Amino acid sequence: MKKLIFRIFNGLAIICCLIGSLYAQNMAEPDNSLSTKQQNIIPIAAYTANGELQLLKSALNDGLNAGLTINEIKEVIVHLYAYCGFPRSIRGLQTFMEVLEERKANGITDEMGKDATPINDNRSKYERGRENLEKLIGMPLTGTQIGYAEFAPTIEIFLKEHLFADIFDRDVLTYSERELVTVSVLSSIGGAEPMLRSHLNICIYQGYTPEQLQQFINIIKSAVGEKEARDAQAVLNEVIKNRQSQQL
């Protein structure tokens, strides 16, 4: 009888340990939450876009400590120049160089990470860019150009050949990570709501949930400001409402 009671209590103790372990894991990594790396990409992109270099230094240190590699952070800063210009991107890279030197002087060795895979594709950049964009948005691009692309065809060519071929062909970051960089920049600089709307839709197609995008808004609020977060929230609410109505 005593042995039976012991076995029962021992079994209950094991079950309690397993439940506690699972609870701890769920508390550490919520299923419907942005990963730690994703969370750190947002302020790095936002501070670089706004030229907040002192805040960027802290964000860069946090990103490295969170496991982002040197090449991943470089790619974040290079990517965003397409949305906020070379001056902001280059100042971000210069700030990153300073941070790495300071960390090296303090005996910290950061992981370099993988570089971009060489491109082995004989198609034109335009064709590659169009295919990448189709993968990004999840639909074929057909028909004649309209809007700004019809008004200024050159910029449409630049977008396909450079942004969606030269940049998106670089596999240091995934498409979804690149979109997180993009919406972080667009939310931070303001006045780009139509583009933000498009890219939030792409974020959802690339697998981000409404809850994860709400977490993104919350990070923008704490890192950038209430106005920027409020404006981005209005766009996100519209995107989610439209998608819900389409599903009815």
In short:
With 248 residues, this protein is mostly helical. 75% of the residues lie in helices and 0% in strands.
What does this structure look like?
This protein has 248 residues and is an all-alpha fold. The chain has two domains: 36-116 and 170-247, AhpD-like (Up-down Bundle), CATH 1.20.1290.10; 117-169, no CATH class. Helices cover 75% and strands 0% of the residues. α12 (210-223) runs antiparallel to α13. The chain starts with a helix and ends with a helix. Residues 1-29 have low confidence and may be disordered.
Please identify the structural class as seen in this structure: mainly alpha
Q: Strand fraction band?
A: under 5%
Largest sheet: number of strands, sense, barrel closure: none
Which shape, going by the Cα principal axes? globular
Helix and strand sequence: HHHHHHHHHHHHH
Output the number of helix runs.
13
Would you report the number of β strands?
0
The tally of domains stands at: 2
Q: Which CATH top level class of the largest domain fits?
A: Mainly Alpha
The residue-averaged pLDDT reads: 90
